[in-house]
Amino acid sequence: MKYKTLLCLTAILTYCNIDAQSRTKGLEEKVQQLADISAKQSIIALNFNKFKEYVKSPPRDYSFIVMFTAMAPSRRCAICQHVYDEYLVVANSFRLSPSFSDKLFFGLVDFDEGSDVFQMLRLNTAPVIMHFPAKGKPKPADSMDFERTGIHAEAIIKWIQDRTDIQIRVFRPPNYSGVILIAMLLVLITGFLYLRRNNLDFLYNKQMWAVIAIFFCFSMVSGQMWNQIRGPPFFHRTKNGPVYINGGSHGQFVLESYIVAALNGAVVVGMIFMIEAAGGVKGTDIHRAQEGKRRRFQFVVGLVLVCVFFSLLLSIFRSKTQGYPYSFLFK
């Protein structure tokens, strides 16, 4: 009886050892295959079979960052290409980073090539960037929130660092378009001033500088600086049609900033009409009845502009910040 028990224990230990060796060998082969693919391209294209083999199936001691997208023109996903460009910058930066290792890989699942993966994960929108940890299942925080963080490469890298503790430095290819544009603008301004060197009275025109200052204020208030920093899409196209106003309080679209600037401009025009109707800044008097009628009409037009377009501004604000403490003002 003792010999049978000893024989059974020996068989079990031998099986466990063989199984552990096969799992180790399978992991080494899987990592080596991924490393070979990553050496050729920083982002690994995944279909359903490759996703199950490399991302979902054990053994696995590495993390996987996967972008789910729909790049085909027929899908009409305007933001997908922009997010992919930033995602590619992150993947290429990781290859050039000192922290580059076989503990992190980048993948891509396109809907037309991996619709089964979308169904398996119950994804009904794109793009989505998810982190699949080496151990355990993805948590809600393993899905990147574009509205809160943005879609720039810097935001993606910060999110990856929070999920994997791997630090990546952004390496962008040089872009000289901005430098060339500024140089051309300076040349044009210099040439214009040279041609008008004998008549520079326009530089003392108060109205011209006032208009420039107002347009600068409109661009800043509408969020143009935020657009330059975060790089949002122009608008978002969904299956229900295009969306021009971002529903979150931490994001916006480029077209949305233009709409806000136009609404602010209409409010300012209305205020100017009312001020001029009251006699202007210097307070000129009304001498003729016809002049009085014109000013009353101008005042009504200005009041309508202010009320209508400021109400639209409040409506946009309410749609983006529904939990604001002063929401009772908009009811």
Summary, kept brief:
By secondary structure, the protein is of the alpha/beta class. The chain has helices at 2-40, 48-56, 78-96, 115-121, 146-149, 153-164, 177-195, 206-221, 224-230, 254-277, 289-320; strands at 44-45, 63-69, 104-110, 128-132, 236-238, 241-243. Residues 13-25 and 327-331 have low confidence and may be disordered.
Question: How would you portray this structure in words?
Answer:
- The strands form 2 sheets. A 4-stranded mixed β-sheet has the order 1-3-2-4, sandwiched between helices. The chain has a two-stranded antiparallel sheet with strand order 5-6.
- Helices cover 57% and strands 8% of the residues.
- The longest helix has 39 residues, at 2-40.
- The protein is of the alpha/beta class.
- Helix 3 crosses helix 6 (153-164) and helix 10 packs antiparallel against helix 11.
- 19% of the residues are buried.
- The chain has helices spanning 2-40, 48-56, 78-96, 115-121, 146-149, 153-164, 177-195, 206-221, 224-230, 254-277, 289-320, and strands spanning 44-45, 63-69, 104-110, 128-132, 236-238, 241-243.
